[in-house]
Amino acid sequence: MAIDFLAGDAAEGAETDSTLLLLLFPLLHAFPGDVRAALLAEGDWHSARAGELLWQEGDAITGLLLLSSGVVRATANADDGPRAYLYGHMAAGAVAGLHVLFTEPVAQVNLVVQEDCRYLTLPLTALRRALDAHPAAWEAVARELAQGVYHLVNSLNLLGQSNGYQRLRRLLVRLDRRARNSHDISGVALSQQELAARIGLSREMVNRMLGELRSGGYLTQDERGRFLILKPLPHAF
């Protein structure tokens, strides 16, 4: 789990929070100091425990959510129970809610805390005022949204594979690359149920394929539970 740099002695004050926000969120760098200060002055800090629901799909939302620590799971179709679709995980530095600058102000996913987290909420009205005061910051908004589109296209590419093993193989390669390149929580571990939810398969099918890959010496998990590929995965199962 990531270290919560913003937890602890409240005497550290807003100055510490603001400094760490600039390190975590490139979006805030786009605003000059006075505009950024006015924006952050309207924000509120929150802490949430594992299992708490932050957003429910379809509910009205009035602000951005900026995650400073912990892990939050984004899902859809929660009524489907174990077959709910898992979009992915948000880690420190993630921003949710920018889409409502252009669409109706409702949550498109469920956000559920997976590991205790700390986050800042910023009212959309305050963000719009900041953007009106400094229009050049729209470029930073566009970059954030582009990252979301990139993730969505990758998810669609996975689901577009007609062969279940090919979906799993592509996801494992992606997770392996992230785990090897990451020294923080962004290399979050996925359970076998979560793997299944990411690629639209049953847990039983995923468990069977993972078992075969482990027994064949292709796959292992590190001390944090992240999947690592030991040798090139077979092209067919």
TrEMBL record:
Sequence ranges assigned to domain Cyclic nucleotide-binding in this UniProt record: 27-131
Molecular function via GO: DNA binding; DNA-binding transcription factor activity
Keywords linked to the UniProt accession: DNA-binding, Transcription, Transcription regulation
Domain HTH crp-type stretches: 162-233
Pfam families given in the database record: cNMP_binding, HTH_Crp_2
Transmembrane segments: none
This protein's GO CC annotations: cytosol
UniProt name for this protein: Crp/Fnr family transcriptional regulator
